[in-house]
Each structure stands twice: as structure tokens, then as C-alpha cells.
């Protein structure tokens, strides 16, 4: 058959975790290297992905299905470790969000949202996804608000 009539697969840039099938979040080398205990020994492509599924022990993976598991990290990262900070830059935890809800306010959550806009936010290296924690903090707040 003539190659002119064969459709190439669509390249979306999306990649799913080889362990659990969750859609990965693209991360740059600087991000994953900040969290991996031995980044020089870890072989991931420059274009790697973060697995967001909390019950999966794969944290980072690449298109070659090479993986970094939770035991290879320098420290716990949210959501893989529920005790780890939601915000790697400023240390906000799930317990802080729960305290806001119990107190009937959003003092801590609002403070993090404001700090995340400022120059002290170092999301590229402090967040396991390389992105701002604001969406995760807001998602956590809405989820816990209904359960506390």
C-alpha cells in the first residue's frame, strides 16, 4: 500500500503512567531532578511525566517507560505521601487545610494563594509537578470541606 494513504497516529504529547494508566503531567528535567535522591544515576528523558494517582508508587516516568518510584525520592511528595506538603514552597499541608475548615475560615489557604503569586514561589523545583500548588490546594479544600 502506498504510504501516502496511511494515516500517521495523532501525536498529542499525552502520556499515561505505565504502572496505573493515569494521564501524566509533563515535567522538565530540573523539576524531577530536584526530587529524586540520585538524579545523576536516574535515566529519564528530558521530557518526563509526573503520575498524579496517589495510590501508584510511580512518581516520574518517560516515553520509554522508565520509571522513578516513591522510594527513590529525597522526600515525600503530595499526593503520593499524604503527610507531605501540598505546597512545597511554603509548607502548607492537608492538616493546615483541615484546620482552616474546622475554624470556619480560609486563612491559611488564602495566604498560600497570595504567596504563590509572589517572587518567593519556586514551583519549578519545589513542586513535584513543576507547577503552582494553587489548584491542588483548592481541590483539597473543596474535597475536605464536604467531609469535615
Distance between termini? 62 Å
Number of strands: 4
Shape: globular
Order of helices and strands: EHEEEHHHH
**Percent range of helical residues:** 25-40%
Low-pLDDT runs of 5+ residues are 6-12
Strand residues, percent: 5-15%
Structural class: alpha+beta
| Multimer state | single chain
Q: Major sheet, described briefly?
A: 4 strands, antiparallel
Widest sheet, order of strands: 1-2-3-4
Cα-based radius of gyration, to the nearest Å: 18 Å
In total, the number of domains comes to 2
Please tell me about this protein's structure.
The structure is a single chain. With 148 residues, the protein is of the alpha+beta class. It has 2 domains: 13-75, N-terminal domain of TfIIb; 85-148. Helix content is 29%, strand content 9%. The protein is built from 5 helices and 4 strands; from the N terminus they run βαβββαααα. The protein has a 4-stranded antiparallel β-sheet. Helix 2 packs across helix 5 (134-145) and helix 3 (107-116) packs antiparallel against helix 5 (134-145). It is globular. Mean pLDDT is 91; it is low at 6-12.
Amino acid at each position: 500500500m502506498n504510504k501516502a494513504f496511511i494515516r500517521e497516529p495523532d501525536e498529542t504529547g499525552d502520556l499515561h503512567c505505565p504502572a496505573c494508566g493515569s494521564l501524566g503531567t509533563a515535567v522538565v528535567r530540573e523539576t524531577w531532578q530536584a526530587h529524586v535522591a540520585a538524579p545523576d544515576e536516574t535515566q529519564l528523558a528530558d521530557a518526563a511525566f509526573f503520575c498524579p494517582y496517589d495510590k501508584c508508587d510511580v512518581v516520574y516516568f518517560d516515553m520509554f517507560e522508565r520509571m522513578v518510584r516513591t522510594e527513590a525520592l529525597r522526600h515525600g511528595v503530595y499526593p503520593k505521601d499524604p503527610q507531605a506538603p501540598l505546597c512545597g514552597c511554603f509548607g502548607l499541608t492537608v492538616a493546615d487545610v483541615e484546620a482552616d475548615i474546622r475554624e470556619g475560615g480560609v486563612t491559611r489557604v488564602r495566604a498560600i494563594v497570595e504567596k504563590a503569586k509572589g517572587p518567593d514561589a519556586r514551583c519549578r523545583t519545589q513542586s513535584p509537578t513543576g507547577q503552582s500548588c494553587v489548584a491542588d490546594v483548592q481541590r483539597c479544600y473543596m474535597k475536605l470541606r464536604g467531609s469535615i
